[in-house]
Design brief:
By secondary structure, this protein is mainly α. The chain is built from twelve helices and two strands. 41% of the residues are buried.
Length: 315
């Protein structure tokens, strides 16, 4: 695919992101289904990476768990449950599915485990293989499904029983602010790192995992994250002066810096997964831009951090 086609797809992705945020402003619940859609695809992509890297999982369990996480979040928010209650529900679902999968496989499909080709190659006994397979499945449930779950919380942050936050940000679309902050930090980190990395070049950051990343690119990526956080802060502070009186620009310098570091760590982690599976991209959903996981790797890692920052700054 030529450069013009790549630019065209990149512009379409940007347009889709803008439209999605507009939709979020008018109907956060519709945006929930956008999150679910990409979460499911990202889960399937990582599941395939696990299989290609020799780490088999229990079929359909990660995808089912992803849907259960969404359902618990959606119902919890509709019922006006607190953030703590929803968190406990979601973490409980992941734990129960993990234990049920591991114990159930030992009790009910032991014969299938004994015949499994991978078990025969590795020479594990059935108990060891059941635990191994359950652990691989848990990894897919946590990354990306459990981490993306925090995007649901950001989306509905004003409906989670957080009274202090609601008192200080009444009338402010705080969910939209959090999502814009999340996307802007990650996007500008990636843009600055790629642009300045190609311009300056120099010493590689981690050549064995991601040969195109440079130290110069990583440092300017940190700057991009700070710029993204400050732009988001000043735009919203200009519109909602009273609500943002409790926030200070230096806090967002820290948020941008740490968020950019996390974004780059997420990008490197996903590069490691692809290198282990011996593939160039996690998928081809976005054609030349790779799969959903290739686009969401930094966002997945940053969602819990941004959620925590919103509670700390405005709580």
């Amino acid at each position: 695919m030529n450069d013009k086609e790549k630019v065209r797809i990149g512009l379409l992705l940007t347009l889709f992101l803008i439209v999605s945020l507009v939709v979020q402003y008018f109907s956060p619940h519709i945006f929930d289904f956008v999150i679910l859609f990409f979460s499911m695809i990202a889960t399937m992509e990582f599941n395939k990476l696990q299989l290609k890297s020799g780490n088999p999982t229990f079929k359909y369990v990660p995808e089912i768990t992803c849907f259960l996480i969404f359902t618990a979040s959606f119902v919890g928010i509709l019922c006006s449950l607190s953030a703590i209650t929803i968190l406990l529900m979601v973490f409980g679902i992941v734990l129960l599915v993990y234990l049920a999968t591991m114990l159930g496989s030992m009790l009910f499909i032991k014969k299938d485990l004994e015949k499994d080709e991978f078990r025969l190659v590795t020479n594990m006994d059935t108990t060891q293989f059941a635990v191994f397979k359950a652990n691989n499945t848990l990894a897919v449930m946590v990354y990306p499904s459990l981490l993306i779950f925090f995007a649901y919380l950001i989306n509905h942050i004003q409906g989670l029983g957080l009274d202090i936050l609601n008192d200080t940000t009444y009338g402010v679309p705080m969910g939209l602010f959090g999502l814009v902050l999340l996307f802007t930090i990650c996007c500008l980190t990636d843009t600055f790192a790629m642009a300045f990395g190609k311009l300056i070049k120099g010493k590689k950051l981690c050549p064995s995992i991601s040969p195109n990343k440079t130290i110069a690119g990583a440092l300017f990526g940190l700057l991009g994250g700070i710029v993204g956080a400050l732009i988001t802060y000043f735009v919203f502070a200009l519109i909602f002066k009273e609500a943002f009186a409790v926030a200070y620009f230096w806090q967002f310098i820290i948020v941008g810096f740490v968020g950019s570091f996390i974004a780059q760590a997420g990008d490197i982690f996903e590069s490691f997964l692809k290198r282990r599976a011996d593939v160039k991209d996690a998928g081809d959903f976005f054609k030349s831009h790779g799969g959903v996981l290739d686009r969401l790797d930094s966002i997945v890692f940053n969602a819990p951090f941004v959620f925590a920052c919103l509670l700390f700054i405005f709580g």
